[in-house]
Amino acid sequence: GENVEQHPSTLSVQEGDSAVIKCTYSDSASNYFPWYKQELGKRPQLIIDIRSNVGEKKDQRIAVTLNKTAKHFSLHITETQPEDSAVYFCAASFGNEKLTFGTGTRLTIIP
Amino acid sequence: EAGVAQSPRYKIIEKRQSVAFWCNPISGHATLYWYQQILGQGPKLLIQFQNNGVVDDSQLPKDRFSAERLKGVDSTLKIQPAKLEDSAVYLCASSSRLRAGYNEQFFGPGTRLTVL
What we know:
A: mainly beta; globular; B: mainly beta; seven-stranded mixed β-sheet; four-stranded antiparallel β-sheet
């Protein structure tokens, strides 16, 4: 089955700086890669997703890049703000099959 | 539109007791998922329903966990008997697959289970 590894497990950045979280996946058939943000005690919420026929996608301060050959994808957050502090999860799936989640990255924005 | 609803939000039981969780997905969403999220980890799929049929229950500990989705709408997840290691947040999610090829899932608030 699919295995998703996520790094780093914790990340602290100064407010205004950029943050990058990286994930690798094992199943070359996976074709859908979402990123979820989970604030303390709250539900995971989708912040951006990408399909394997696209190499990069941006939404304001958030971008995701995908390298199918290397089987890795990354989340980029620019101009970080205190409200970006949360746990971020990457995930991967093939078609309509289950999402396999990474282990999460706790992002802390230092004011 | 209303989001995914779950109840109860919190539950504390002793080991060997039974517990049940309820989920009501977003209206019209045919696919429903139950995940287990242990503290500090990512959600792990327990079971996936498409309408009222099971699509994937390969990671469901069937000796103690059961789930049903009668009528293809709301769903219940049961644990009987509970063990200490079942302490976790149980998340329900649903998806409509309106965006072809995008398995966009919407999560409920979760039920935090503590087994003493």
